[in-house]
Amino acid sequence: MRKKEWKLLITFHSTTDAMSMESVCKEQGIAGRMIPVPESVSAGCGLAWCAEPESRDMLKAVMEQEGIKEQDIRECLI
Prior knowledge:
Layout: E1 6-11, H1 15-28, E2 33-36, E3 47-51, H2 56-66, E4 72-77
Antiparallel strand pairs: 1-3, 1-4, 2-3
């Protein structure tokens, strides 16, 4: 069994915002990946961007610049 680690999860109201986040991060070489929302978290579209917690401020700035709206940003053991 894999050891759980603290990760930053960004959830979205819409699949459109989730897919935009994935696209922008890949284009800009930003580390992270799209995952299904864990059962312990509820989110509108069922997708979340998973990244290292220390990337929170940078990711928020990227989302603001690109007009991507998050539902929630939180740290979780995954």
